[in-house]
Amino acid sequence: NAGVIQTPRHKVTGKGQEATLWCEPISGHSAVFWYRQTIVQGLEFLTYFRNQAPIDDSGMPKERFSAQMPNQSHSTLKIQSTQPQDSAVYLCASSSGQYAEQFFGPGTRLTVL
Amino acid sequence: AQKVTQTQTSISVVEKTTVTMDCVYETRDSSYFLFWYKQTASGEIVFLIRQDSYKKENATVGHYSLNFQKPKSSIGLIITATQIEDSAVYFCAMRENYGSSGNKLIFGIGTLLSVKP
């Protein structure tokens, strides 16, 4: 069985450019989560979808960050006008239900120059 | 406030021995879920084991087991018969069980385990 798929695995952008990160959850999983990992902040929650509907975006920076889940097979995280402090590994996770454990993808390493 | 604390930044053990990693948590909820994940050198984050707060019996999966002490808000991970390939960073995480925000994981900072021959 395929796990969570994330593309690209690595992305380098210049300051001020846009970055779009893609996630394909495990087939049949109804919940999708985005997290960010940095050395300084560790693993931080960004946003959560259940059955494609946005449920909790309390971890998302209010400006420049947005996430969507247009269908059950993929979600995107978009960062506009990227800044060096956005450099991190962005992780997508999915779970089969509200109380199930989350399974993580390999992450996208974003580097903003 | 929700918080997960791992005080051991790194542990080194000899293979085939048993290691315990500590984790304490803070929550305002009476019902919550606790998880342990490991992150390998390649960056892959792997789910290992979970403990639901309402269960009194400690969870066990393979050579992983938990020491759940609810009055102390503590959930230790025990790895028996450690192997070289157990070398990784181990994260403790908590998920509360209330409202729409009760699904996100709150992670500790991780404990680096090195298993040596």
Topology, please?
The complex is a heterodimer of chains A (113) and B (117).
Chain A: E1 5-7, E2 10-13, E3 19-24, E4 31-38, E5 42-50, E6 53-56, E7 65-71, E8 74-79, E9 88-95, E10 103-104, E11 108-112
Chain B: E1 3-5, E2 10-14, E3 19-21, E4 24-26, E5 32-39, E6 45-52, E7 60-61, E8 64-69, E9 74-79, E10 88-96, E11 106-107, E12 111-116
Distance between the termini of chain A: 36 Å
Number of strands of chain B: 12
Structural class by sheet pairing and helices of chain A: mainly beta
Order of helices and strands of chain B: EEEEEEEEEEEE
Q: What shape does the CA trace of chain A take?
A: globular
Structure at a glance:
The complex is a heterodimer of chains A (113) and B (117). Chain A is an all-beta fold and 113 residues long.
How would you characterize the overall build of this protein?
The complex is a heterodimer of chains A (113) and B (117). Chain A has strands spanning 5-7, 10-13, 19-24, 31-38, 42-50, 53-56, 65-71, 74-79, 88-95, 103-104, 108-112. Chain A is mainly beta. Chain B is mostly beta strands and 117 residues long. In chain B, a hairpin with a 2-residue loop joins strand 7 (60-61) and strand 8. Chain B is globular, with a radius of gyration of 14 Å. The relative contact order of chain B is 0.33. The model of chain B has no long low-confidence stretch (mean pLDDT 94). Chain A binds chain B through residues 31, 33, 35, 42-43, 45, 48, 50, 55-56, 58-59, 89, 91, 98-99, 101-104, 106-107, and chain B through 33, 35, 37, 42-47, 50, 91, 93, 97, 100-101, 103-110.
